[in-house]
Amino acid sequence: MNKQRRRGMSLFEVMLVMAILVIISALSFPSLSSMYGSYKMNGALDATRAAWAEARARAIEEGRPYRFSVEPGGSSYRVAPDSSDYWQGDVTPSNDPNGQGLILEQSLPSGVRFTVNGEGATGDLPNEPDNDFVTEKPVTTSNWTTAAVFLPDGTAKDDVKIVFQLRGVRPQSLQLRGLTGNVSVQAE
């Protein structure tokens, strides 16, 4: 007898493989989503540290103070020279005797919120938006709260603590030591 070889799989075999894949993905989803949250938290910390470093470097280089301000209860921040001309609406001063200063406006990854020195802390974090695009979350230039002012000698006016929060992830904070300009990260 000449047995012919089977060329396909039965419906039962296909369904068994699909069931195994569903079980494996259901088991791995919680760890992947928590890992994704920690990546977002680390991205927010790194972006803020980079903005602080840029503001401090510009203050030293240009010989004028730079201000780091945040959107109260939000996720946006702004860096610009510590002059009222740079903090009035959307207008950038064109006649600055020190030359055009850096203006940096950014948003944290979606779902990440920060509070400065414990002010404006809310107990309930909003649900996370469906996207991570900064263009979807426009940064407005009104109602900024000053968090830190970097001086031309490399120091800051005050000590600052910014707490970053994201639903499902342990809060972390950035602490700026005003006297030295040193920045440290701590888990809350």
Number of spatially distinct domains: 1
Q: Kindly state the percentage of residues in helix.
A: 25-40%
Mean pLDDT: 80
Instruction: Specify the CATH class.
Output: Alpha Beta
Taken from the alpha-carbon principal axes, the silhouette is: elongated
- The amount of beta strand, in percent, is 25-35%
Q: From the 3D coordinates, which CATH architecture would you assign?
A: 3-Layer(bab) Sandwich
CATH overall fold name: minor pseudopilin epsh fold
CATH H-level homologous superfamily name: minor pseudopilin epsh domain
| SSE pattern, N- to C-terminal | HEEEEEEEE
Tally of DSSP β-strands: 8
Q: Structural class, please? A: alpha+beta
Distance between the termini: 75 Å
| Main sheet characteristics | 4 strands, antiparallel
Write out key terms for the chains shown.
4-stranded antiparallel beta sheet, alpha+beta, 1 helix, 8 strands, minor pseudopilin epsh fold
What does this 3D model show about the protein?
- There is one protein chain.
- The protein has 188 residues and is an alpha+beta fold.
- The protein has one domain: 3-Layer(bab) Sandwich (minor pseudopilin epsh fold).
- It is built from 1 helix and 8 strands.
- It has one helix at 11-62, and strands spanning 66-70, 76-81, 104-107, 113-116, 145-150, 160-166, 169-177, 182-187.
- The strands form 2 sheets. It has a 4-stranded antiparallel β-sheet with strand order 3-2-1-5.
- Strand 1 and strand 2 form a beta hairpin.
- The longest helix is centred in the first third of the chain and has 52 residues, at 11-62.
- The protein starts with 10 loop residues before the first helix and ends with a strand.
- Residues 128-141 have low confidence and may be disordered.
